[in-house]
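Batch job 17 of 40 flagged for manual review because the log was empty.
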Amino acid sequence: MDDFFAGQAHYQQALLTPADPNEVIEVAGVVHASGAGASRFGGEEDWTFIFSLQPWRSPDGSIDYRELTIRKRVSEVEKDDLWDYIKRYDVLGMTIQMADPRTYEAKKLNAILVGSLHKISGDIELDSRAIQMQQPVTFDDKYFGTFTLDRSINWYETDTRWGAARIILYLATDNSDEIAGLLDSAKAMWKDQRAWNKRIRDFAVQELLVLKNETWLDVGEQEVTADQFKKRMTLESITLHPDGDFTFMHEDGDLFCGHAIEVSGNLTDGPTDADIPG
């Protein structure tokens, strides 16, 4: 685990390395639907604050529709101030340096915030895009009903029923060409949901029951049986990916102090991994 956090800290530092320390540019853009976030690793005192622009206006005035991810090392107070200031779909202007693409492997563009940022208005193209990004994108399916695009993750979702439970079904794509295949996979899984439900829950018990009883028992708590473990799991969502992978997320019923129970796998091999993230 220490190696993981050290690796993440090194990766973040690489993304904060400018391509040209002497080149500073002014850009403006629309804050991505995912909003802002922050992280720190390995006992670091400062935070890495992060948000994205999409689209954004480059210094030559042209609009770039690629996602541009912005980072800055900040104190706790600065982090809180930025979090309060930056909202989804804001149109912001700022001073940045482009990150050195030789220091990391990434498909997205990355940059470092080096000056103050400010909210702007009157840029017709960016203002129009910000409004457009807040309009719902939906499609209807006779079996599941209406799916709505969650722009923060670019997945479609719908509220549906799995047995007696209400859950969220996610189709992990915003590509219209992939939707039909995902819907076919979902319908096949739903038609055989009793068998899938048993496979998922049995696998969770197989992988996590020993962990619960050896590491996660409260003081005075008796060992949990397989049946008790299953009864305390509550399915919350199913995510299907175009490559056939899936994830079942469960509320843990306080088995692991509020951690989710995640069972993932693929449609060919069934469940292959169980974890307690969060």
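Reviewer: the log was empty due to a logging misconfiguration, but the result itself is present. The two ends are 15 Å apart (CA to CA). Unflagging and moving on to job 18.
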